[in-house]
Amino acid sequence: MCQSTNETHVCHCPGGKTERYLQPSLLLALHLKPSYGYLLIGKIKDFGFMDGDVDPGTIYRHLRRLEDDGFVSSKWDTTGTGPARRFYEITLDGEALLKDWVMFMERNYNNLENFLNQYHQALP
To answer: In a 3-state reduction of DSSP, which class is residue 75?
Structure first.
């Protein structure tokens, strides 16, 4: 999370793990367009929360958990010449959870903006 380029810099930034935004990223990607798990990897990287390579196993574990909790549904797609693939869609409960995430992010965004404004105003 730290943006310092100084090699001797010791980061004490409390920014937290970007993986915490994997759940809302998956929900938003599926809200925009139902998809296969592998295609979601590229889509969620576009949101900017995930640094570096995204582990497909992590994506599939999160999708399975979201499905177990009723926020995502899936079905096997056996059409085509390749192996069967799971096709994921967001559910109504998933849409509600996504809205909760958006409200949480908007609240944090407003708090961060207020903090940064006060910081910049205090600079000489």
So the answer is: strand
State the pairing for strand pair 85-90/72-77. Answer: antiparallel
The average confidence (pLDDT) of the chain is: 87
CATH number, residue 54:
1.10.10.10
Q: Say how many domains are in the chain.
A: 1
Identify the H or E element spanning 76.
Answer: strand 72-77
Which domain covers residue 103, as residue numbers?
Answer: 18-122
Residue 25 covered by a domain? yes
Query: SS3 for 97?
Result: helix
pLDDT in tens, 20-65: 899 999 999 999 999 999 899 989 988 888 777 888 999 999 999 9
Check: pTM over 0.85? Answer yes or no. no
Whole-number Å distance between alpha carbons of 5 and 58:
28
CA quadruple 97, 99, 100, 105: dihedral, nearest 10: 130
